[in-house]
């Protein structure tokens, strides 16, 4: 990848667009400069958001369970993505 190597399940924050500041998990690689991201709320696993990696701020945290399931081809539900974001501290507990 052009800037930093992103991993499936890695926590990222949007730097640009209407979703600026919103946390996401990297869902898939689309090209050298584009990835798909999900948050389990506005961007569900059924319709991930395409984002240029230049518009993402990568964090060192990775949702290991999501990454493991995704790479194994196991179905992942939106509530699991939301829980992973909460566990990583990206979404405050309500």
Please characterize this protein's 3D structure.
This is Ribosomal protein L14E/L6E/L27E. Keywords: Ribonucleoprotein, Ribosomal protein. The termini are far apart. The chain has a single domain, classed as Roll (SH3 type barrels), CATH 2.30.30. It contains 2 helices and 5 strands. Strands 4-3-2-1-5 form a 5-stranded antiparallel β-sheet, covered by helices on one side. The protein has helices spanning 64-72, 78-87; strands at residues 10-14, 23-29, 34-38, 49-52, 56-62. By secondary structure, the protein is α+β, with helices and mostly antiparallel strands.
Work out the count of structural domains.
Answer: 1
Kindly report the CATH topology: SH3 type barrels
The CATH class turns out to be Mainly Beta
Give the strand order of the largest sheet, numbering strands 1, 2, ... along the chain: 4-3-2-1-5
Helix amount, in percent? Answer: 10-25%
The poorly predicted ranges are none
- The whole-number mean of residue pLDDT values reads 92
For the largest beta-sheet, the strand count, sense and barrel status come to:
5 strands, antiparallel
Described by the principal axes of the CA atoms, the overall outline is: globular
Give the second-level CATH assignment, the architecture.
Roll
Beta content comes to 25-35%
- Terminal CA distance reads 36 Å
What sequence of helices (H) and strands (E) makes up the elements?
Answer: EEEEEHH
Number of strands: 5
Q: Tally the helices.
A: 2
Q: SS-based structural class? A: alpha+beta
* Rg, nearest Å: 12 Å
InterPro entries: Rib_uL2_dom2, Ribosomal_eL14_KOW, Translation_prot_SH3-like_sf
Keywords: Ribonucleoprotein, Ribosomal protein
Protein name: Ribosomal protein L14E/L6E/L27E
């Amino acid at each position: 990848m052009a800037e930093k190597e992103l991993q499936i399940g890695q926590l990222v924050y949007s730097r640009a667009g209407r979703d600026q500041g919103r946390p996401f998990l990297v869902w898939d690689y689309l090209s050298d400069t584009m990835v798909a991201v999900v948050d389990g709320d506005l961007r569900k696993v059924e319709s991930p958001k395409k984002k240029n990696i230049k518009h993402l701020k990568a964090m060192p945290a990775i949702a290991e369970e999501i990454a493991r399931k995704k790479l194994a081809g196991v179905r992942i539900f939106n509530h699991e993505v939301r829980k992973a974001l909460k566990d990583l501290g990206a979404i405050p507990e309500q």
